[in-house]
TrEMBL record:
Amino-acid positions noted as binding L-glutamate in the UniProt annotation, renumbered to this chain: R42
Catalytic reaction(s) noted: 4-(phosphooxy)-L-threonine + 2-oxoglutarate = (R)-3-hydroxy-2-oxo-4-phosphooxybutanoate + L-glutamate; O-phospho-L-serine + 2-oxoglutarate = 3-phosphooxypyruvate + L-glutamate
Protein name: Phosphoserine aminotransferase
Originating organism: Dyella halodurans
Enzyme's top EC category: transferase
């Protein structure tokens, strides 16, 4: 069976060139006679890989020198709890902007460690839009402001970095990191689970302003303490070496593609093509998100008659289009258009959707 066009929300499509290279190198990496998975993380070869991956990520995102880059584990979910452990002390509060499912999860996981103030939310609008910036009740004494630039399930994305004054801005970029250039200096902390735009699951990439590593918050095991991870080059314990390797290959692939400016243009073209086809379907397909907040990465859509959902899924898979079923919270369909999904895949999806609408309209 050949590979299908994969619209999975995560774990998601990886660049085929990366998979092919990993396949070629699997048994004998760099002529060392073993797989990268079978080597000590403290050996010279793997240390070289780790340094190169960090250097490539720094180049792609133009990460300033006063930021540390960490390669961690635990998924983004673990860091929902670990971020307040590291950034907020006894009695501190933190502001959360909630624009969908993952923002809600960030709040509930943070609650044992910090007084959570939901400073802005679009829950009452069913997360169909972003809460207007002038409605946010930010506290200038907050330990940090947390938000989710792209909500993977609801398909809502911030298209500008919010202004929050002097309070460090913390962003869960799990589903939009590396999809466009960003000004890292606007953030205190950026973190992302790898399994959408970086590599396989089981790896978290974190970019943290070094002064935030110095916050004395509470006693905790070293393994939870970001400063200890930074001081040990993310090798406090055995890291996810395989994930780190694939992330490094993905960073190299992104550089070969022309970096994040090129990815941004591609991602915009892909999103325009799909939204254009939904909006131009005469109501057969529908995406209800406010135009200004539509996600370029995750496009949820419904069919005008949900009785057609099963046929849509069955026929789309037969047409070579994988993983279009929407999240159970919303139903309907969702197409995720991460970096590794080419325009050609979106064209195939749009062609299928047009044909399906003709046959079932
Ligand atoms: N945040 C966002 C925006 C996500 O999309 C996801 C996963 N889909 C998570 C957090 C949770 O990630 P993990 O499963 O790696 O903990």
């Amino acid at each position: 069976m050949s590979r299908l066009w994969n619209f999975s929300a995560g774990p998601a499509a990886m660049p085929q060139a990366v998979l092919e290279r990993a396949q070629r190198e699997l048994l004998d990496w760099q002529g060392c006679g073993a797989s990268v998975m079978e080597l000590s993380h403290r050996g010279k070869l793997f240390m070289g890989l780790a340094q190169q991956a960090e250097a490539d990520l720094r180049e792609l995102l133009a990460i300033p020198a006063d930021y540390a880059v960490l390669f961690l584990q635990g998924g983004a979910t673990q860091h929902f709890g670990q971020i307040p452990m590291n950034l907020a002390g006894e009695g501190d509060s933190a502001d959360y902007i909630v624009t969908g499912h993952w923002g809600e999860k960030a709040v509930s996981e943070a609650a044992p460690y910090v007084k959570v103030n939901v400073a802005g939310s679009s829950k009452e609008q069913h997360y169909l839009q972003l809460p207007p910036r002038d409605s946010w009740q930010l506290d200038p004494r907050a330990a940090y402001v947390h938000y989710t630039p792209n909500e993977t399930i609801h398909g809502v994305e911030f298209h500008a970095i919010p202004e929050v004054g002097e309070v460090p801005l913390v962003a869960d970029m799990s589903s939009n990191i590396l999809s466009e250039p960003v000004d890292v200096s606007r953030f205190g902390l950026i973190y992302a689970g790898a399994q959408k735009n970086i590599g396989p699951s089981g790896l978290v990439v974190m970019i943290i302003r070094r002064d935030l590593l110095q916050r004395a918050t509470r006693p905790m095991s070293r393994i939870f303490h970001y400063a200890d991870h930074a001081a040990n080059d993310s090798m406090l314990n055995t890291p996810n070496t395989w994930g780190w390797y694939l992330a490094g290959l993905t960073f190299q692939w992104l550089k070969e593609q022309g970096g994040l400016t090129a990815m941004c243009e591609r991602n915009r073209a892909k999103a325009e093509l799909l939204y254009g086809s939904i909006d131009g379907s005469g109501g057969f397909y529908r995406n209800p998100i406010d135009l200004a907040a539509r996600s370029r990465m995750n496009v949820p859509f419904t069919l005008h008659d949900s009785a057609l959902d099963a046929a849509f899924l069955k026929e789309s898979e037969a047409a070579g289009l994988l993983a279009l079923k929407g999240h159970k919270a919303l139903g309907g369909m969702r197409a995720s258009l991460y970096n590794a999904v080419p325009l050609e895949a979106v064209q195939a999806l749009v062609d299928f959707m047009g044909d399906f609408a003709k046959r079932h309209g």
